[in-house]
Amino acid sequence: EAPGEKDREAEFEVLMTTKQLELAEAKSHVQRMTDQVAALRAENARQEKLRDEVRRERDDIVAHLQRDANEKQALNETLTKRVNELELKEAQQAELLAQLQKDKDDAAELVGSTARVAEEKASLEGTVTQLRSTLDEKERALAASEASASELKTQVSSTQRVLDDLRLELARSTSITHVSGTQWTLKRSKHRLHATDVSHMPLERERASLTASGRNVVLFGGTLKDSCSNDTHVLNSDTFEWVKVKRQTDTPSARGGQACLLANKKQIVVFGGRRNPLFNDLYLLSTDGWKWSAVKPTGSVPQPVEKSTLVQVSEGVQHGDCLLLLGGDETETHARPGEGKQPIGGSQLSLDKLEWAPVEFTGPAPQRSNMSLTASHDGRFVYSFGGSDLGGACSNDLAVLSPDKMEWSVPDLVMGQKPSPREGHAAAMVDRFLLVSGGWNERGRLSDTFVLDTETMHWECLDAGLAPNPDVKLRTRASIFVNEGRRLLMLGCGATGDELDEVEVIDIGIPEEAFQRMGNRVDKIGLEATQNASDLRTIDVRWQPPPNSKVRITTYKCYMSISGTPLVKEVYAGAVEYCRITGVKATNGYQFRVRGEYSDGTDVWSDIVEVHVRPAGDSPSPKKSHPAGGAAAYYVTRGSPEPTRTG
Fold first, then answer.
1. How far apart are CA 581 and CA 336, in angstroms?
2. How would you classify the pairing of strands 458-463 and 449-453?
């Protein structure tokens, strides 16, 4: 080889060595940059995309360099080309270095930004800590406010209770009214009701039954705001405490409009009612322990019915004590007014045999819904009052049943202020007095109380209550007599969802002289009535005041009715002791009764005297007198008075 070629080869080898060193240095530099990139990747997650681009460029450079090395090893003859490629690569490396420097600067800026973010984070954490502290303080203040509000609420509740107690105390009043010439005392009060367990407080309801058992009142069933109930609650009218009877296996199913009665003072009888369909089942509730028992009576079981009435009688179609079932509504589904079905006749349940038997009555038997049936103390009579027909029209008619004959009759000459028509009312007998209270009619709920002296057949208004007003929504009440009729309780009713937590009480004070029979009284007006002999269309009526009472009587009132009609008319009012009735018709019977009013508001009555007007040519017939409470007595009047005033 020529010397020049050796020199060139030596130079080439030196150059190759230099380039390889440079390449190795470049690879080392690339490795260092790769480490820097990895470090930057770890430090800056937010620049991931940029680092990915750098990584791809780095990989490209490495790939290019690797290919160049392979090409240089395989193609030594293309040195110039490789040198150019290496120069190009160097340029690219320079650009890469510049880019990496830029990336480094960006990373430094990112680190600074991260530091600022960390500072802001620390600042925000401090703010959050401060806000949490403020929130804790406000929560403590709120807890203190809630405690204060709770205490204030307790104080308000206590104050409200004091105000309610004051309102109840202010509701106490005493009034005096005159009944059959005697002074009756009415003590009105209101009381708060409570229960041993708050959850045992009953809610107001409709169509429930209230049954008196001594001083207790048993509430059963009824329609609540959203459902029908079969709950049983017992109210002690002395302590005003509710007790809820636990449900038992034989507790009746939920219902309303059932008939209930205390039988023999030891068990409450429940019959019928409705929860669609109607019921005709029978249950007994023992008043000793309040235990329910389902009964399967034999005999002719009555048809399913609601709104019927039970009364206990000692005589009838079966021997021994029996329950008489009368009235009600047998309509299977709710029909339009007037299209329902009422029972025909009645049914009687023997308490000894638990056997039903049909009853056929004589006379005008009442067949109404929600009427009252009240037996006299001696069991000789049952008084029916009020009720409604299928059209919903209420009545204030009075009828009397003689249980021994199952005969109904309408009393003659019923006088005084009759109660307004009603149904669903309470009724009780106190000796000979029939008390009627509450109920409802087409105008709304009633809260008045009336008393009928069954001896004189005279109504008196014992307590006027509040007049029903459809435009004024007052809290409605249901009435019940306890303590043998001497105490009247009025409880809230209606499907309102309110608790039964208040009761209005009227204690009725009756003097002993009120129970003295008219037939045994000496302070009785003597009355006689005769058909005028010269004018057969005229009846002369004359009366005599009781001894030593003439100067005390300020006014006499003479009442007349035509036999067989319920109409009673006041035909005379004045101070004289006789009157003349003209224009009477032959063959009619006329009944008369006189009332004397004393100056102190009391009064005195005569017996009922009946005159049968005879046509011309007939001989005089005896005049019939009806002493109250006894058998009819007959007497013949002696002559006619000389009346100076015509009724």
1. 48
2. antiparallel
